[in-house]
Amino acid sequence: MGYFSETTEGGDGVWISGSLSATRTAGGLFSWQNDQDVSVLVDAVLLDVTTAATSSVCTVDVGYTATSATTSSDTMIDGADVSTTARNYNHIKDAGSNGKGVVKAAKGKWITASQKTGDTTGLVGTYYLHIKKVRT
Amino acid sequence: MGYFSETTNGNDGVWISGTLTASDTAGAVFNWQNNQDVSVIVDAIYIDITTVATDSSCELNIGYTATSAATSSDTMIDGVAVHTNTGVYNHIVNAGTNGKGAVKVAKGKWITASKSAGATAGLVGVYYIHYRKVR
């Protein structure tokens, strides 16, 4: 058994953030590649949507994929409706049917956010991912 | 895109991790005793199953107990099936009926993981517990 602080090597609680892009292709909202030297646990995904999409129907997926940066996945957020309300969407409240709460992202693989339905045009916001390295 | 560490001031909590044991005795999959000087709040438990149990009905319970390290509890994860799919199971999606989301563990008491159904033979994985001291 090991003890480690979140802020030291081994504990590895780190937040990653960036801007959302109103791009309709798979992985177009954002994609993050695990650039760490080992697999990481992704245990929080937050989408801080400050301007909702203009389309009356726009849902988004966020999740892990081992395929590519342009592959859609819904294993963290499944079909969150971002067409009406600017708010914080997350992996707990917006897990939908396929959200798993926590996913392991292998070294070099991706977390992607994609349009699921409708049209993301007009969407503005910031994403936050929390990662921690796996025990090795 | 920016990377930033969690803040270090205040009470940020600590992660504990260890390997799972394929044992069918209560508390034997893992147990952790609160060795801090006060109670702690356990607010996250993950189990990363890399090899599933060979028994097709194997399920696990994880939770707090004030009784002993060899007592089963399901107050964080209740009856999660670990016989078919590898992956990361957790206190949110796998809370089941009795998972409470977070639990307070008194000084000297335990978080235990136990078989709740089937048999654990073949099970391989790692557990992660996050806790913070109470105010």
Provide the fold topology.
The complex is a heterodimer of chains A (136) and B (135).
Chain A: E1 2-5, E2 14-19, E3 30-33, E4 40-51, E5 58-65, E6 77-81, E7 88-90, E8 103-105, E9 110-118, E10 124-133
Antiparallel strand pairs in A: 2-10, 3-9, 4-7, 4-8, 4-10, 5-6, 5-9
Chain B: E1 2-5, E2 14-19, E3 30-33, E4 40-51, E5 59-65, E6 77-81, E7 87-90, E8 103-105, E9 110-117, E10 124-133
Can you put this structure into words, describing what you see?
The complex is a heterodimer of chains A (136) and B (135). In chain A, 0% of the residues lie in helices and 47% in strands. Chain A contains no helices and ten strands. In chain A, strands 2, 4, 7, 8 and 10 form a five-stranded antiparallel β-sheet that branches. Chain A has a four-stranded antiparallel β-sheet with strand order 3-9-5-6, with no helix packed on it. Chain B is mainly β. Chain B is globular. The N and C termini of chain B lie far apart (34 Å). At the A-B interface, strand 1 and strand 2 of A face strand 1, strand 2, strand 4 and strand 7 of B. Strand 2 (14-19) of chain A pairs antiparallel with strand 1 (2-5) of chain B.
